[in-house]
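re: ur msg from earlier - yeah i can do the guanosine-5'-diphosphate complex, just paste it... oh wait u already did. ok heres what im feeding in:
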Amino acid sequence: MKLGIVGLPNVGKSTLFNAITKAGAESANYPFCTIEPNVGVVSVPDERLNVLHEMYNSKKTVQTAIEFYDIAGLVKGASKGEGLGNQFLSHIREVASIIHVVRCFEDENVVHVDGEIGPLKDIETINLELIFSDEEIIERRITKTRKALKGNKKLQGELEILEKIKTTLEEGISVRAMDLTEDEWNFVKTLQLLSAKPIIYCANVSEDDLVENNMENKYVKEVRAFAKTENAEVVVISAKIEQEIAELEDEERDAFLEELGLKESGLDKLIKSSYHLLDLISFLTAGPEEVRAWTIKRGTKAPQAAGKIHSDIERGFIRAETIAFEDLKDHGSMAAAKEKGLVRLEGKDYVVQDGDVILFRFNV
Ligand code: GDP
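and the outut:
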């Protein structure tokens, strides 16, 4: 799962990205070990793994991971190919969703590109570049569809959606804010539009606002109000504090968070929101060798979930011995849960649920 971090210059992107790389997942656990400099990999926090780890006294715990891409280089005019514009846009095209860092801190030592802090204007600047790029795609597609039309009902329907998107973009509104039917969304997905990508607005506040004002200030309120128009999520962080947190060992880290009056780090909040945003869930596997979380899209069936572990298990799938994590936790062990009949034998049409602890049976 890839997420791209974007934002205007001097909003705190690098600071946040440094925190991400420092907090980085142990590379040994992940297949993609050669990581480019602009990629940070972090583990997805999952308390359930700790419980399973104790229950099974397992040797190893493997969390699932998220990749963050630092996509710097946006300037006004990117969609017209200015600066590193084209490269910037093509990087965004590759990510599943966007984290847009918005400056919500005042600091006279840090210059704002426009001279004053204005989250709405910042958001608009970036969103418009994506919108301009989408407009070009849509216009080309409209021309093509018109040519091919010749009474084709399906194409007629598509043309109507394309026209609707065009009008929206011309108003400076991102496609993700549109009110569309499921069928329409499925078509929109095939267009690979940048402004249709799910987004998290990451409001970067000062250390003081984080601690003293419960992470609120007038800028954050503006970001929230805007995000609402797009049904987008807002995560408030202080990039500077995140960087400090990322440098600490686990115990020190917990103490520091407590001192700040925080339940979890901003980075953890960001990771969890990203997971949610992309409609991802985790299923778990557990044994004395290792306990492990696996990422799947909500709605994935058992054999395809098994395929995440190994394609052989998907191919030879027989059944999934499944128990909900909470049931397993409540009974303290698999044996006790089995006695109560809580372990289900699920077949190939079973839709895997978040927190399912699964043992796959398969033919080799
Ligand atoms: P980028 O251009 O978006 O990558 O921004 P940087 O991460 O380089 O940050 C620009 C400047 O803002 C640096 O001097 C940072 O130390 C400062 N900065 C970033 N985040 C915060 C923050 O949360 N609080 C304060 N006071 N300064 C910050």
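cool cool. The domain at 299-362 is CATH 3.10.20.30 (Ubiquitin-like (UB roll)). ping me if u need the other ligands too
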